Amino acid sequence: MAISNGIRAESCLDCERTDSRVRDLTPSQHLAIPAEALRRDLGDVPRQARYNRRAALRNGAVGMAAVYAATRLDWDQIWEAARAEAATTSAARKVVLIYMQGGADGLNMFVPQADAQWASYNGARSNIARTRGVSTSLADVGSTPLPGAAGAYLGLANPLLSGAMNNQLYGMPAGAGGLDTVFGDGSGGAGSNLAIFPAADYDPPNLSHFDSRDYWFAGSVTKPTTTGWLGRWLDAQGSRTNPLQAVSLDSALSKQIRTAGAPVCAIDSLDGVVFDVAGVSGDANRYVQQLGSIAAGRRNAALARSRATYALTTRVSARVQDVAVGTPAGVYPDANASYLSNRLQLAARLLGGGLGTRVITIDWGSFDTHGSEKTAMDPQLAELGACLSAFQADLTARGIADDVITVVFSEFGRRVGSNDSAGTDHGAGGPMMVLGNAVRGGLASEPSDLTTLDDNGDLRVTTDFRHVYRAVLEEWLGADPRRYLPDLPNGTINRLGNDPNVLLKAS
Amino acid sequence: MKLTEPMVDRLFWRAGFGPSAADRRRWKGKPVLALVDWFLTAPARLVGPAPTKDGMALDPIKNDDDLVLEWVDRMIRTTNPLVERLTFFYHRHLANSQQGVGSNQMLRTQNAVFRGYADLAHNPNASFRGLMRDITIDPAMLRFLNGESNVKGAPNENYARELMELFCLGVRDDRNRANYTQYDVEQLAKALTGWSIAGTDGMDPHPTPTFNLDSWNNGPKVVFGVQQEFRVRERTDPGYVSAKDPIELVLRRPGAGRKPYETHARFFLRKLWHEFIVPAPDARTMNALVAAYLAPVHGVPGLHLKPVLRRILSAKALFSSLAEPDMVKPPVVYVVGMFRSLGAHVTDNLAYRALSLTDQVPYEPPNVAGWEGGNAWLTTNSVLWRFSLAGELLRRLPPVDHVESATMAVKRAVTELHRPWVAKATMAIVNDAASRSPSGSADARIQRQRLVRALLLAGPDGQVM
Fold it and tell me: How far apart are CA A429 and CA A199, in angstroms?
């Protein structure tokens, strides 16, 4: 499909809004998340006691879940369901979806290494190309060949994506890991936990943010659906009462987990809820605390109760931080500076919190790099490598690393040739990764050949994203993929050489 | 007794959803009874724009949220708020839920029945007896408490029990005597058989109660220790209600050492009193109330509502702790009061969400006993949402920007919010918050107004009335 420049330019009108949130759906109710529900240090405290409403009211809410459900759910019923599921499905397999918004440039993450490939790459985008070999200069980022067989094809942009070369660029903390930390030796054996798909998309690609992301979220290219690919799986296999089974860590629901009926939810924060006034930056919480400290007349139980409750609530959030948050195990980037770090720490807490959470979605970043690509993209790559590595360490410390896989993707790739603004326009074949102890690490499909681009100057797609979804459903979740992917093409993920075309390690 | 301004405020909060500036101007200095009589005789109209949700008209039949919003809007726009307060009181006393009834149409019909007994301008002789007769065979109630499955061969005791326990008598009387036994429940249930709902196939928009003599249990019934002779016939006379006799029996509650109707009167009047007043009524006041309630009409105790409401609303105890209000606003009163004091209307789902987050959604009581209420309304969760409602509403209203001192900004907020009650110490903190707020730009001044207004309306002092 030939797409003219004119159309491409128009498609950028929706660049501003490249997230996966559904806009035509409002939450059916809101649910307070009690601090107790996330505590990990309760030991012998009976589970029942953690979830009852009284305990929640006593210790306050860490956050609110916006619930999307076909029917109104009773508060106690939800927590009873969460409790029951957490007890029975503690080892249930879980999926984290990280959507890199805007169409990420895989070529500047996974840099071609073979001579002819790199020559084509460098020739097409000399103003933004990475060099080969180690270079820790931010102005001239290098690339380090991936370990093992993959190294003949691709190198990690260093020091951004490489933890071994971490020198605290862009505010990354000392000791932070990178993609190399989780890639291991790339053999697909123990410690090789990162599968890389260098050019994942659908064919023919259409290069529109709006259309492409909708295809990815729906899990369907030719058959429009209002539900998401994992939403349909939740409808068939999920709980009918526990909205915490699938959570968008966002202010609204991601289409990926939009269901026809099963309850799901969006949670924006678990940092404790404070008093604030919409649209006002002043610290209302502080004044409310003062107001709550005024003594009421001795016989006035109502006013005394009101002031005491306000005062208590202002103190709750500080206590919640101690009790529920804990110290994350991984070396995460500063969560105040890194949104992805903030979201992944939330994700780890939820997954480890015993709430029956099976699916988490995160929308992150701004990868629509039409200009000044290095300035825009490089800090995010440093963030990505450090965050994924820290997340994996966090899950390991929580004892759930074997139960979680993380899928990272973007709606498309970018043009091989750069433009005059030192950026790249919309292209085909974006970077996709699947991470997890269970994942057979390594190069999971062949890189696109830069010497034979398509008519549009774009990468040829070497992985149909639906084949990765298929593997997630079939191999990881034990589900029939044809039931949830209405236009699943024939074929599977396309590993190199003698590797079997599977996503997971042999169990 | 002449009304001072705090007294006007008190009455408009307890009998309504808070005062307006005009209410204060009109009633300050007038006799208490003049205002009470206005509440009891003024017809209710709805003023202001009709409710919408995101630009669309409400659809209360199809949409559960809209059913709630429709009523909340009435509360916001009514010219006589006592009508809606009483309607809501009946809903809480005779609590049916959307979940249990499963028909918005039926709940709306029931709501109209309640309002008929709350609108004393149109129904000055409204009696509790009439309310119970109507509600006993109201389709929503027949559904909710299984009246429709209370059949001849297999009586369902649900309604009979609640009729005595929750609606008319209570479990025990003032002298700690059981007001009924399980046997009474079983026997009374038989007397209430024979009813079903016509038009519940979902096609008929107006389900109606029907009585079938053949499915009425015609066996003997011994209630309160005496065999009762309930008169029943086919329903040819539109004024005839077969459930009349069992209801009258419960209201009368005969028995050794009991004065007829007094068990019911004391049970019901105490609840009605505490709807408006915090301190308990003393014995003399209670006796006077009972006497007014039981004043004969055509030879039987009238059980009329207006005379007792007139006494309660003008009782001295209603004006207790005027300097520092002493009753927690129930969520419905708080939310509606907030809309009214900001001049806001229903334009989206906000009121529904606010009620849901503060634990009192009309038509969704937790059970047949209604909401627990009282000081328990305020929890570490609910106060957060009570507070955030102010900011959400303010954001929907035109921004207020005036170049003025912090003191003037607070004065403006106080005036435009119709001087909500806050303690002096509270006002000092609000003034401090204003003085610490930036005011160098329009945006900063708008934010300062919002902060001040939220602290005044939605802080701890805003929760009491």
Answer: 4
Summarised one tens digit per residue, pLDDT across range A297-353 is: 888 999 998 998 898 777 655 544 444 455 677 899 998 889 999 999 989 988 887
Spell out where B94-237 has E strands: 195-198, 208-211, 221-223, 226-228
Go through chain B and tell me how many residues it has. Answer: 465
- For residue B68, give the nearest of B107, B29, B95 by alpha carbon: B107
Which of B 59-88 lie inside 8 A of A, CB atoms?
A: 64
Please check the confidence at residue A49 and state whether its pLDDT lies above 60.
no
Give dist(CA B103, CA A159) in Å, integer. 64
Asked if B380 and A277 come within 8 Å (Cβ–Cβ), the reply is: no
Q: How confident is the model at residue A45 (pLDDT cuts 50, 70, 90)?
A: very low
β-partners of residue A141 are A136
- Do B461 and A291 make contact, defined as CB atoms within 8 angstroms? yes
Choose between A51 and B359: higher pLDDT: B359
Q: In terms of C-beta density within 10 A (0-12 exposed, 13-18 middle, 19 or more buried), how is residue A13 classed?
A: exposed
> Can you tell me the ipTM of this complex?
0.93
- B353 interfacial to chain A (CB closer than 8 Å): yes
Question: Is B461's Cβ below 8 Å from some Cβ in A?
Answer: yes
Rg of chain A, C-alpha, whole Å? 24
Per-residue pLDDT tens over the stretch A61-118: 677 788 888 877 776 777 777 777 766 655 689 999 999 999 999 999 999 999 999 9
Is there a contact between A186 and A146 (Cβ–Cβ < 8 Å)?
yes
The band of B234, judged by pLDDT with boundaries at 50, 70 and 90, is: low
Report CB contact under 8 Å: B349, A26: yes
Give Cβ neighbours of residue A385 (< 8 Å, ≥ 6 apart): A156, A160, A161, A162, A163, A176, A177, A178, A179, A180, A181
More confident of the two residues A56 and A132: A132
- Tell me if A302 and B388 make a contact (CB, 8 A cut-off): no
- Position A31, amino acid: L
pLDDT at B199: 74
Among candidates B99, B375, B433 on the partner chain, residue whose Cβ is nearest the Cβ of A302: B375
Beta carbons of B277 and B317 less than 8 angstroms apart: yes
Instruction: Choose among B380, B430, B450: nearest Cβ to A279.
Output: B450
B66 CA to chain A: closest CA distance, Å? 13
Using CB atoms, pick whichever of B323, B384, B447 lies closest to residue A279.
B447
The 3-state DSSP class for residue A31 equals strand
Coil, strand or helix at B227: strand
Query: A311 or A129, which is more confident?
Result: A129
Across B376-390, average pLDDT: 85
Distance CA B434, CA B407 (A): 7
- C-alpha–C-alpha distance, residues A162 and B260, integer Å: 88
Among A residues 299-358, those touching chain B with beta carbons less than 8 Å apart? 299-303, 305-307, 309-310, 312-313, 316
pLDDT in tens, A168-192: 888 899 999 999 999 999 999 999 9
B29 vs A162: CA distance, rounded Å: 80
Q: Tally DSSP H helices, then E strands, for chain A.
A: 14, 15
Residue B124 falls in which region: left (phi positive, over 0), alpha (psi -120 to 50) or beta: alpha
Residues of A in contact with B400 (CB under 8 A): none
Is the CB of residue A54 less than 8 Å away from at least one CB of chain B? no
Pick the residue from chain B with its C-alpha nearest to A31: B357
Q: Tell me how far the alpha carbon of residue A246 is from its chain's centroid.
A: 13
What pLDDT does residue A47 have? 46
Please answer yes or no on whether A306 and B380 come within 8 Å at the CB atom.
no
